[in-house]
Amino acid sequence: MGGREQDFVRQAFESNYIAPLGPMVDAFEKEFAEYTGIPHCVALTSGTAATHLALRHLGIGPGDEVLASTLTFIGSVTPVTFEGARPVFIDCNESSWNMDPELLCEAIAAADRRGKMPKAVIPTDLYGQPCDVPRIRDICDRHGIPVICDSAEAMGARYRNKKSEVRSQVDGSRTLNPESWRHAGFDAWAAVYSFNGNKIMTTSGGGMLASHDKKLIDHARILSQQARNPAPWYEHTEIGFNYRMSNILAAIGRGQLEVLADRVRRRREIFEGYRQRLGNLPGISFMPEPAGCRGNRWLTVILIDPQEFGTDTHAVRTTLEANNVEARPLWKPMHLQPVFQGCVCWQRQEAVSARLFREGLCLPSGTAMTETDLDRVCEIIQRASRG
Ligand SMILES: Cc1ncc(COP(=O)(O)O)c(C=O)c1O
After folding, report:
1. For labelling alongside 13, which of 124, 243, 272, 330 has CA 20 to 30 A away?
2. In what order do the strands lie in the sheet containing 360-363?
3. With a 6 A CB cut-off, is 240 part of the ligand 1 pocket?
């Protein structure tokens, strides 16, 4: 927790508004919209719920296909299966580790030839690094396919939309419109955020669905409250869910929003700290950050080339574990998950995501880490290379 969370929670208790929805939820939504610049949003119990409501609003159902990043957490795609639809996975590219727009293009062209277009595309902002949502939008807009950006991990991350570059009419030079730095998810039809306990900002559990499309958010709000129609009694004309965020958790969220910029700054510092300490070791490389991207570096992720480093990722991870330091493999790609056996994945030769999974390691990245903690983790990694 950062500072004023307890204050906000106390206010919620004092108002005796202990319920899903309430004044703290309204204020959290308003402040969230201001922070991200996305005008409409609804606070929910989780990021997974947010994706689910966006898909439900689109009326996706059995027989439909939804294209999604393969290198992601499963909560990104389970809502597709809740609705009885089928996910089709898209590999990532080397330059961003996010959905490869070229493969997306090929997948959509093939779907077009088959006469069965995907009903939505869900690219993930992996580890808080914004995907190329403007380019993905360009591709999808040609076919009217809605983009639901899974920005669950990307609170506080920003990217530049090149379309906002201002071209001088005098000499043709380009200057940046300050508005061109956009919050992760901004250019998507809908964006999903998670406030799960492990995220850069948390409400213990929670999520947000945000959009420029007011109709989507109005409908999602109704769906999140058991789809109760406006009537003095409980009247229902469709099936909804119990997905609304509690007033207490929204109070925590308001406090977290206030310290988010600091958190992003510290996570980026931690990333740089690792890079300074490990960057020169043979066989170690870091998650790239494409130009025009300013991720939140939610996690610092490295790749270990076993030939050059002298030992593999698994050995480094278990050495860290033996020293009471937790590091984790990357998300196991969805197309390699037994539960998605038989689902198609668009990739070239060996999937990039499969190699990243094999060689990648998420290092401890909590904002509370000190320089001494960083030294300790890096020394263990260096020792591991010497066997
Ligand atoms: C990429 C990604 N998508 C979706 C989710 C689901 O969010 P939640 O746990 O709030 O349901 C998470 C995190 O948990 C995530 O990391």
Report:
1. 243
2. 284-286, 300-304, 360-363
3. no
Query: What CA–CA distance (Å, rounded) separates 329 from 27?
Result: 37
Ligand 1 atom showing the smallest separation from residue 194 Cα: 10
Q: What is the pLDDT of residues 329-373, one digit of tens each?
A: 999 999 999 999 999 999 999 999 999 999 999 999 999 999 999
CATH T-level assignment (fold) for domain 261-385: Aspartate Aminotransferase, domain 1 (3.90.1150)
Q: In whole angstroms, what separates CA 259 from the centre of its chain?
A: 19
Q: Which atom of ligand 1 is nearest to the CA of 125?
A: 1
Please tell me the total number of residues recorded for the chain in this structure. Answer: 387
Say whether 211 sits in a helix, a strand or coil: strand
75 lines ligand 1 (CB under 6 A): yes
Asked if the model's pLDDT at residue 279 lies above 70, the reply is: yes
How many Å apart are CA 64 and CA 357, to the nearest integer?
29
How far away, in angstroms, is 270 Cα from ligand 1 center? Answer: 22
Give the CATH number of domain 5-257; options: 2.40.40.20, 3.40.640.10, 3.40.960.10, 3.30.70.270. 3.40.640.10
Residue 166 has pLDDT above 80, yes or no: no
- In angstroms, what is the span from residue 110 Cα to ligand 1's centroid? 29
Establish whether residue 46 lines the binding site of ligand 1, counting it when its CB lies within 6 angstroms of any ligand atom.
Answer: yes
Measured from the CB, is residue 385 less than 6 Å from ligand 1?
no
Q: Containing H/E element for 355?
A: helix 352-359
**Of 229, 219, 222, 155, the residue nearest 192 (C-alpha):** 155
Q: Is the pTM of this model over 0.90?
A: yes
pLDDT in tens, 290-310: 999 999 999 999 999 999 999
